[in-house]
């Protein structure tokens, strides 16, 4: 069931939700939280589809806030709110309200969203793109117990991690961190199977992929060992290698789907480690609404410390022999030099 409201108010949207529930025969509200999605028109469809899929596990009221850009000064001066209310099969297992903001109301989205929040229910705000520099102090972010961003969608994702660490507030999280949950679980399980001490590690993955940095910072923070970050063609994370007193432990995933776990002295094992869709990532984040202290600790470790430790542990460059001094391939040393070496030996 869909209801379109043009030039409307939050009060009229609430009335449309009540009338819609009665029309489809479900007057009771069975949602467990409010999910606020702040996005643009280009990314709204994909974000809403992911939220609808996640709502099968977490029935929620989904509010999609789309801030429309006004082209002329006259349009910017005129405030308007359009809404699309979706219930029943059109909203999966929850309720969906798509809000399109025009003019001055764009700068006051919190005043539109606040009356639509479910009473006595947690609030989660998700920015699929264009997240604010400080989510906790954003007007919409201040309404939420949990704030979800995605540094992978940023123009400079690695630089963004530094800013996230400086402004971290309990309740902040990032989908780049959520993507490495299976990797962290598998590496922790691998270390539980052996009695050894890890001396160093290397994380390999795509360039400019913040998940690679976050996994490397997590290893460095938890194991207190130097961790190097190397680049591959992807997709995503491709390999983690930990050097230990019991031999190397390697988790390798070259194709983005099936990984191989190698532990010294044990047979290699195939591990399902596929790259997950956005709906699965959002569903995971909605399972816990308390602060993620592990993410905070890894984030605060810092990309700069990771780079410094990698530079200190990098192997010394091999000294290049000048071409003129190097003997030609397949030729023996010059006979004239042999007496000189013998004389030196005497």
Q: Care to describe what's here?
A:
The protein is elongated. With 346 residues, the protein is of the alpha/beta class. It has helices at 10-23, 41-54, 73-77, 109-113, 157-166, 175-178, 181-192, 210-223, 278-287, 293-301, 303-313, 337-345; strands at residues 2-5, 33-39, 60-67, 80-86, 95-102, 123-126, 146-149, 172-174, 198-206, 227-232, 237-244, 249-252, 258-263, 269-272. Helix 2 packs across helix 9 (278-287), helix 5 packs across helix 10 (293-301) and helix 8 (210-223) packs across helix 10 (293-301). Helix 2 (41-54) links the parallel strand 2 and strand 3. Residues 317-321 and 323-346 have low confidence and may be disordered. Strands 1-4-5-3-2-6-7-8 form an eight-stranded mixed sheet, with helices on both faces.
Biggest β-sheet, characterized?
8 strands, mixed
Report the strand count: 14
Report strand %: 15-25%
Number of helices: 12
Task: Report the order of strands and helices.
Answer: EHEHEHEEHEEHEHHEHEEEEEHHHH
C-alpha termini separation: 100 Å
Roughly what percent helix? 25-40%
Regarding quaternary structure, what we see is single chain
SSE map:
Blueprint: E1 2-5, H1 10-23, E2 33-39, H2 41-54, E3 60-67, H3 73-77, E4 80-86, E5 95-102, H4 109-113, E6 123-126, E7 146-149, H5 157-166, E8 172-174, H6 175-178, H7 181-192, E9 198-206, H8 210-223, E10 227-232, E11 237-244, E12 249-252, E13 258-263, E14 269-272, H9 278-287, H10 293-301, H11 303-313, H12 337-345
Briefly characterize the structure.
With about 350 residues, the chain is an alpha/beta fold.
């Amino acid at each position: 069931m869909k209801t379109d409201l043009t030039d409307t108010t939050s009060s009229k949207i609430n009335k449309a939700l009540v009338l819609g529930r009665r029309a489809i025969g479900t007057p009771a509200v069975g949602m467990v939280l409010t999910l606020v999605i702040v996005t643009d028109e280009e990314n709204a469809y994909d974000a809403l589809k992911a939220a609808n899929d996640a709502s099968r596990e977490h029935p929620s009221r989904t509010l999609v806030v789309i801030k429309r850009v006004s082209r002329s000064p006259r349009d910017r001066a005129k405030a308007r709110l359009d809404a699309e209310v979706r219930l029943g099969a059109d909203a999966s297992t929850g309720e969906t309200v798509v809000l399109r903001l025009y003019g001055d109301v764009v700068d006051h989205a919190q005043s539109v969203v606040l009356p639509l929040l479910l009473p006595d229910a947690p609030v989660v705000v998700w920015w699929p793109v264009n997240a604010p520099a400080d989510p906790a102090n954003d007007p919409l972010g201040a309404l939420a117990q949990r704030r979800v961003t995605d540094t992978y969608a940023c123009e400079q994702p690695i630089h963004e991690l530094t800013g996230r660490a400086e402004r971290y507030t309990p309740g902040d999280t990032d989908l780049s961190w959520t993507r490495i949950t299976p990797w962290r679980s598998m590496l922790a399980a691998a270390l539980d199977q052996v009695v050894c001490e890890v001396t160093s590690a290397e994380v390999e993955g795509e360039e400019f992929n913040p998940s690679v940095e976050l996994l490397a910072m997590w290893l460095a923070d938890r194991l207190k060992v130097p961790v190097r970050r190397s680049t591959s063609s992807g997709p995503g994370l491709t390999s983690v290698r930990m050097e230990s007193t019991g031999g190397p432990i390697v988790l390798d995933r070259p194709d983005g789907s099936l990984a191989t776990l190698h532990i010294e002295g044990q047979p290699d094992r195939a591990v399902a480690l596929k790259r997950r869709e956005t709906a699965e990532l959002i569903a995971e984040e909605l399972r816990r609404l308390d602060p993620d202290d592990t993410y905070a600790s890894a984030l605060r470790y810092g990309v700069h410390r990771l780079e410094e430790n990698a530079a200190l542990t990098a192997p010394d460059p091999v000294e290049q022999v000048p071409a003129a001094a190097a003997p030609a391939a397949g030729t023996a040393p010059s006979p004239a030099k042999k007496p000189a070496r013998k004389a030196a030996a005497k």
